[in-house]
């Protein structure tokens, strides 16, 4: 029995089999459904659809297993900055009984007058060194008038005299919530941060206090914290600069690998048969199609798991594209591919910019508009779920 296929047809058939071996993804093209069914009828198994990487296999350089030279480790801790911690204290535990008054209380004129009397008496006790007594009197005044920023700032000052920086910070923060221009609150809170070794916060508050109402003591405290605060600020700037340099280096390395992969894919593509073009009875312009998909930006986009999963879903069932019309990431990539197909002069049936109806090779239909009844129906189904 003689072979019913011409020698030229056998050559094309062999070329087709070779491309199927190197790129089995093309077996999922709708046009090759008859060939898939033939293979399965003989007991063969078709590989599952890939992540839409339908071009020739790209060999991305593997990471070297050799241990890279260790870069000098720069510590990010402030303790390695040789900060002068003289005068710092152990943080005090916040007193749950530190009464803050009822912030929603309607304060009467009588309440204000009584609160002023308590404040004057508290200041007298504070000047005589009776700090605990002064705090009790400030607390009574706060309960009478919890809307006074001055009362909280002054009680904060008393807590500072007892070396209770956290209690002072709580009172001064409340004072600033009431009056954001309270120089006294910034001053005493800044001093408390200094005692806790929070140099940046201390410098920030003391600078603000000097800006609102300059006094010599606040200026002295600011000069005391400035050297440490400056070291920390410079350290953070250096750390941020190193971070940006590292990110830029990694970005350039990714682009380098993508270009190398693209170049290797192009070399293989040059060796790939074109199956005679659109008019020769073969796959229409398939070599050019694969070259388009090897664009570095498109290749990097497909490395996103969400994008890969979406395109695999669409390749399985073209009508699934309607599920992604509201996803800007997916639709941006489809628009980019559409533009490439249109600009290349290729006509892939059904793809936006292509001709005819049907599906993009692999099964992508034209994205439906918001007025498309099928899109509304699909969205209604999603809402029911």
UniProtKB/TrEMBL annotation:
Residues 351-362 have a biased composition (Gly residues). InterPro entries: Hip_N, STI1/HOP_DP, STI1_HS-bd, TPR-like_helical_dom_sf, TPR_rpt. Keywords: Repeat, TPR repeat. Residues 90-115, 245-271, 373-385 have a biased composition (Basic and acidic residues). Homotetramer. Interacts with Hsc70 as well as DNAJ homologs and Hsp90. Residues 71-83 have a biased composition (Acidic residues). The lineage of its organism: Eukaryota, Metazoa, Ecdysozoa, Arthropoda, Hexapoda. Pfam families: HipN, STI1-HOP_DP, TPR_11. SMART domains: STI1, TPR. TPR repeats lie at residues 115-148. This is STI1 domain-containing protein. One HIP oligomer binds the ATPase domains of at least two HSC70 molecules dependent on activation of the HSC70 ATPase by HSP40. Stabilizes the ADP state of HSC70 that has a high affinity for substrate protein. Through its own chaperone activity, it may contribute to the interaction of HSC70 with various target proteins. One of its GO terms (molecular function) is Hsp70 protein binding. SUPFAM superfamilies: TPR-like. GO terms for cellular component: catalytic complex; nucleus. Residues 46-115, 241-279, 351-385 are annotated as: Disordered. Gene3D superfamilies: 1.10.260.100, 6.10.250.3420, Tetratricopeptide repeat domain (1.25.40.10). Residues 295-334 form the STI1 domain.
């Amino acid at each position: 029995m003689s072979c019913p296929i011409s020698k030229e047809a056998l050559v094309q058939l062999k070329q087709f089999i070779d491309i199927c071996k190197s790129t089995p993804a093309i077996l999922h093209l709708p046009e090759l459904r008859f060939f898939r069914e033939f293979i399965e009828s003989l007991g063969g198994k078709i590989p599952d659809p890939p992540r839409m990487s339908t071009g020739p296999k790209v060999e991305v350089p593997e990471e070297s297993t050799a241990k890279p030279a260790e870069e000098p480790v720069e510590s990010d801790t402030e303790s390695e900055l040789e900060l002068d911690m003289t005068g710092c204290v152990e943080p005090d535990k916040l007193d749950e009984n530190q009464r803050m008054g009822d912030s929603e209380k309607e304060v009467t004129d009588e309440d204000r007058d009584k609160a002023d009397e308590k404040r004057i008496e508290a200041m007298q006790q504070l000047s005589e060194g009776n700090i605990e007594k002064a705090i009790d009197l400030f607390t009574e005044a706060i309960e009478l008038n919890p809307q006074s920023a001055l009362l909280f700032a002054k009680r904060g000052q008393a807590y500072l005299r007892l070396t209770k920086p956290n209690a002072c910070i709580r009172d001064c923060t409340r004072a600033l919530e009431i009056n954001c221009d309270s120089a006294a609150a910034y001053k005493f809170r800044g001093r408390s941060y200094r005692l806790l070794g929070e140099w940046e916060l201390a410098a920030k508050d003391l600078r603000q206090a000097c800006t609102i109402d300059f006094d010599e003591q606040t200026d002295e405290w600011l000069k005391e914290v400035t050297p440490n605060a400056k070291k920390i600020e410079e350290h953070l700037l250096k750390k941020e600069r190193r971070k940006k340099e590292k990110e830029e280096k990694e970005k350039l390395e990714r682009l380098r690998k993508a270009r190398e992969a693209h170049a290797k894919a192009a070399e293989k593509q040059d060796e790939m048969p074109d199956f005679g073009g659109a008019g020769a009875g073969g796959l229409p312009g398939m070599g050019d199609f694969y070259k388009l998909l090897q664009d570095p930006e498109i290749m990097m986009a497909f490395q996103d798991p969400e994008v890969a999963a979406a395109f695999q879903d669409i390749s399985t069932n073209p009508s699934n594209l309607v599920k992604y019309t509201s996803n800007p990431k997916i639709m941006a990539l489809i628009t980019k591919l559409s533009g490439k197909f249109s600009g290349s002069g290729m006509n892939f049936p059904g793809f936006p910019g292509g001709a005819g109806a049907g599906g993009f090779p692999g099964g992508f239909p034209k994205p439906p508009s918001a007025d498309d009844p099928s899109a509304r129906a699909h969205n209604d189904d999603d809402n029911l779920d």
